[in-house]
Design brief:
Elements: H1 6-30, H2 41-107, H3 112-133, H4 140-147
């Protein structure tokens, strides 16, 4: 999600509204001249009320957008920390498993097919971990898709 400056846009929209309201008032209701600042207090209060509401809504939208962006950033940081911690644990496990592989090769009691299966399994685990750590969009589907493309709910 990208931040949009709703308050700035709201001020521009409110100014446009004021100009269009002035033109509409001059053409439809008054029919004489264009008044940027209306002389009628009722007309002035209605315009000011609408302009203030437009600007307040823009400020509210900015605040909500900032809060959503902050939550997204926090969610991304938690995910990154979780993946980083999992990678640390799994890398330690993979390093320890290399020791077992060396012992299995030295013992000669395991056939080559079993050791090749072990290597493929280790490579697949490292590849899946790398794919998981490269997820940018945090959603259940993208995380599942990163490690198992067939796991999406149908």
């Amino acid at each position: 999600m990208r931040f949009s400056h709703f308050a700035v846009r709201a001020v521009g929209f409110a100014a446009l509204y004021w100009l269009l309201e002035s033109a509409l008032h001059a053409l439809v209701f008054d029919g004489t001249s264009f008044e940027f600042w209306p002389a009628d207090p009722n007309e002035l209060s209605m315009r000011l009320t609408i302009v203030v509401l437009i600007v307040l809504f823009g400020c509210y939208a900015d605040g909500r957008t900032r809060a959503l962006l902050r939550k997204e950033r926090e969610k991304q940081e938690v995910f990154n920390a979780t993946v980083s911690s999992a990678m640390h644990i799994i890398n330690n496990l993979l390093n320890q498993m290399q020791y077992f592989k060396m012992k299995a090769e030295d013992s000669g009691e395991f056939d080559r097919a079993t050791l090749d299966l072990y290597d493929r399994t280790m490579d697949e685990g490292q590849e899946l971990l790398a794919r998981l750590s490269s997820v940018d969009e945090l959603s259940e589907d993208t995380i599942r898709l990163a490690v198992h493309p067939d796991s999406l709910k149908k």
